[in-house]
Amino acid sequence: MSDQLSTEHLLGIKALSAEDIELIFRTADGFKEVLNRPIKKVPSLRDLTIANLFFENSTRTRISFELAEKRLSADVVNFSSGGSSVSKGETLVDTVNNILAMKVDMVVMRHPDPGAAVFLSRHVNARIVNAGDGTHEHPTQALLDAYSIREKLGRVKGVKVLIVGDILHSRVALSNIFCLQKLGAEVMLCGPSTLMPRHIATLGVKVEPDLDKALRWCDVANMLRIQLERQGGDGIGNFPSLREYAMRYGLDLERYQRIGKDVVIMHPGPINRGVEVTTQVADHANSIILDQVENGVAIRMAVLYLLAARIPRSVG
């Protein structure tokens, strides 16, 4: 059983092995124990500097990474594209090289273009963590989702996981599919046909357009956020209205009670309450939405710690 990741960067779930994922989970178990102590800090990365580069808005993910970094005692540099030189025409490589000139060891980056993290890893001498690249991947979200399922049900292998909603624009959905399948879960997708990628079934997932049928099949329902910002702002053209979407693909208490069994409810956040899930469902006893938030810090601590172990250290 290896105690080192097989990769030098976290660019996507696709590049990880099942053994890598299990190692991240075991490491997160240790950090979760740290987070429950009165003093929630360890000196693991006190000699490293980590830059958070967010070229897209993301309060939740950015704060989760920043908290993970500070819990590990790293020095943290925060950079957002709003008001920066990026808006003046500076390229991604120029921006990062300027930051690396300040002797940064690791870069956590969110970017609107798919493949931006891979591009960066080939051009700069630092460990790269993909915090979301366009509609491509969001690996730490998938890891924390699978970790939360493991924590709630005691396993991931054999668990039937339903992913509902805007599959077409969701990097969370793609990373979740890769991660869950590597760990032996079954995956089903449900959502409007206009928000379902054409050849998604080639990834080995089931597709069920009827939410009630899909809910009766699953053990876990992950209700994705409607990505209105990627659909022209109002979703018109993909579905008639948010009200109709909520009627067909939203999860309210009445629909949940019709399932006839305990289904674990998840959501990557932020929640559009009354659209993907109602308040009663989001706050239900079988909802692990807040556990996902807590686990996100432990998983990101584990990723940063394991990638830091791959950084060559000078002696003397």
Radius of gyration: 20 Å
**What do we call the CATH topology of the largest domain?**
Rossmann fold
Shape estimate: globular
* Mean pLDDT over the residues: 91
The helix/strand series, from N terminus to C terminus, equals HEHEHEHEHEHEEHEHHEHH
What does this structure look like?
The structure is a single chain. The chain has 316 residues and is α/β, with parallel strands linked by helices. The chain folds into two domains: 13-137 and 296-308, Aspartate/ornithine carbamoyltransferase (Rossmann fold), CATH 3.40.50; 139-293, Rossmann fold (3-Layer(aba) Sandwich), CATH 3.40.50. It has eleven helices and nine strands. The chain has a five-stranded parallel β-sheet with strand order 7-6-5-8-9, sandwiched between helices. A four-stranded parallel β-sheet has the order 2-1-3-4. Helix 5 crosses helix 6 and helix 5 crosses helix 11. The protein is globular and about 55 Å long. It starts with 17 loop residues before the first helix and ends in an 8-residue tail after the last helix. The mean pLDDT is 91.
Structure characteristics:
316 residues; alpha/beta; Rossmann fold; 2 domains; 4-stranded parallel beta sheet; 11 helices
Provide a brief overview of the structure.
By secondary structure, the protein is an alpha/beta fold. It has helices at 18-35, 59-71, 92-100, 116-121, 139-153, 171-182, 211-217, 242-249, 253-258, 279-282, 289-308; strands spanning 49-54, 75-80, 106-111, 127-133, 160-164, 186-190, 206-207, 220-223, 264-266. The chain starts with 17 loop residues before the first helix and ends in an 8-residue tail after the last helix.
